[in-house]
Amino acid sequence: MSARESERSRKSVDIESSECRLPSSLVSTVKSFVVPASRTLQVPIQARPVDVQDVPLLRQPVEVHSHQFVSGPSLPLEINDREVRSTSHAAVSRKRTRIQPPHDIVKLSERLFYLLQPDLETLLAGCRVSFPHPPFPFQFDGMAFLMPRFGGILADEMGLGKSMQAISSLRFLVHSGQARSVLVICPKGLVSNWARELSVWAPELVVGVIAGDPERRRWQWSLQDVPVKVTHYEAVIRDRSILDEMCTEFDLVILDEAQRIKNRASQTSKAVCSIPRKRSWALTGTPVENRSEDLVGIFDFVAPGQVHDGMSPRVLGAAAKGHCLRRTKDKVLKDMPPRLDADRYIELSNEQRETYRRAEEEGVLRLSEMGQEATIQHVFELVLRLKQICNFDTATRASAKADCLAAELEEVQSSGRKAIVFSQWVETLSRLRERLKSFGPLEYHGGMSTAARDDVIESFRNKSQHSVLLLSYGAGAVGLNLQFSQYVFLFDRWWNPAIEDQAINRAHRIGAVGAVTVTKFLSVGTIEERIDEVLARKRNLSDVILSQAEPEPAASLSAEDIFSLFGLKLPDQLGRRAA
Amino acid sequence: MKPPEVGCSQRGETPVNRFWSPPMVSSAVSSHDMTFGFLTVCDAANIGTFGGYLLVDITGRPLEFHCTAPLRVTRAQEILYGATLQRHLHGEQIGGPLLKATQLSPVAVLTDRESLLHARSYGASPLLAIQEQETDGQESREETLWLGAIRLRPHAEDISKMDQLRPHFETLSSSIELAEPFDRIRAAIDEAQHH
Lengths: 579, 195
What we know:
heterodimer, A: alpha/beta, Rossmann fold, 7-stranded parallel sheet, 6-stranded parallel sheet, 42% helix, 12% strand, B: alpha/beta, 7-stranded mixed sheet, 4 helices, 8 strands, 25% strand, globular
């Protein structure tokens, strides 16, 4: 007999025995009913035992899972002197930016740790950090993206404040005790810019710039009480032995303009990737400059092995998604002043036209004669020569572009505004400086010392007599904040549209007070027009990967493209190499 | 590279000592070491009722989190318990074990479910129900604690402590919205449920 049946049997016995003990008073109340003989009442007899259902009561202890988030040493949070408001925050409708656990965090307790944090705004308020300007909501999103990540790429379009988001995030990590040693690596020309940005967005942090002779640098690298160190890529290569020797692990390494390490075989990439570190953040507005492999190179720093060569753009985009955040101005800054693009198609002057015709005929003839011996370098030399003629006639210094630029600058100057002009060549900048004397031009290029460049930016920013700044793409396209300029002129075109965008975004960025007019000069019927067509096609590749869309055909500049600029056939050996 | 590790244990077990140092977020509070509890339940269709209990410091940062396995109630139980079901289920079956699970002594525990006030006898800390909207005003104003538009209704046992609690809640509400941690608990339960 089962326990259940036994229980039923026992209950049954109890019931019977209790019936036997019915009080007599109750028994006496029982009345008898006599059924008439004419009627037969048939009462069905229930012979089978009643099926008893047990309904368990809610008495069993419920299972409880517990997670502790234990405190540890950190900077003290002084909260007692904070203003206490009589009304709750609930009354204030404000944006709450939640920190979401990264995709690569799989352990439940670790995911809960992130989910259970208060919103970012509250966390930052708890750290008692303030901002010189209130960040945009999308910038809070960027911070919420970076903070929990040990490997992340902030790939916002230029001008959206990647530096500020990274600085605010590292600031939080330092305040909360998670980061005690941070290294920022940027291009050489931006070291002072980073130092300035850090002083604005994290004024309470001690920042050290690694510079000087080897002994001094060794001492600077070893400083323990400097939480944030700033250096440039070349210094990391140069001081690699010092870093190897010291074996110092940084809590966080930030790479600015991280496309510098897109080539994994380069010394830069090897030196940067060899730095011991806990967290790796990469900042770049152009994670894909030419080929999808560019992104693979950056991933070697932030999350090695996550992506690899040979992935289709769509697969690569999907694999990179959890580590990469990209926003564009048109999506997040709907209220930002517009960028007005105006291409100027300029006829060469007669002198330029004649010089150009001769140079092209001679160059193409020479390339044709070289036949299979012609290399890409030979073609490039011709391209560069022709482009220089489009800027200035080598013999007479005539320049239709310069004439046009001068006319445009008249208006800029008379309205009290400022313009920046980009060129590929320092020589062109020097000639422009001569030609544009009346506009108080200043030059900024890689041939100048860092201190001299800083002085130029300060003068351009603060002195009204300087209406125009002449910059080389190489030195001026990245990192500078020139949002007080309302006009951008691309005197000649760079090979890569991403670099051109970076140049333009020196002016068209957060803080721009009005519309930014971008003017690109193109000499009609020249190599510049043909290159422009190729550049237009190249713009697609970056969009494909970052939006995980299907690729457009012929998205990058190939050797075949370069030869075809002059209607030449690709030499066999180059064709085989390309294949 | 790993995020900070946190302790995780079943009830009755010693928390695992695998804490990352330094921690992701400091929970260092003031010299008062004030902690606050947030207790709630949430229903998941076809799964049951989950309970969640979050303990935070004065800045709203999490210190402990406890959640229950889902509790399913049958139709028969609904009929048998009748009007007492929620009180029993929330207050005794879920709220009680959760309040007992903590290793901290919160200044007070807030709940967004009136039924959880019945868990009061399982914990030592005052228990108050948070209400953001005006109710019918059955309770006298003396029995409630008002913080702006937020009304806190204490368990009968804690009515006498309201004056003492007010400054603590004012301090807490200067850091966080008092109803906000319940969203975190629900998100965490949802995560745990789908993990």
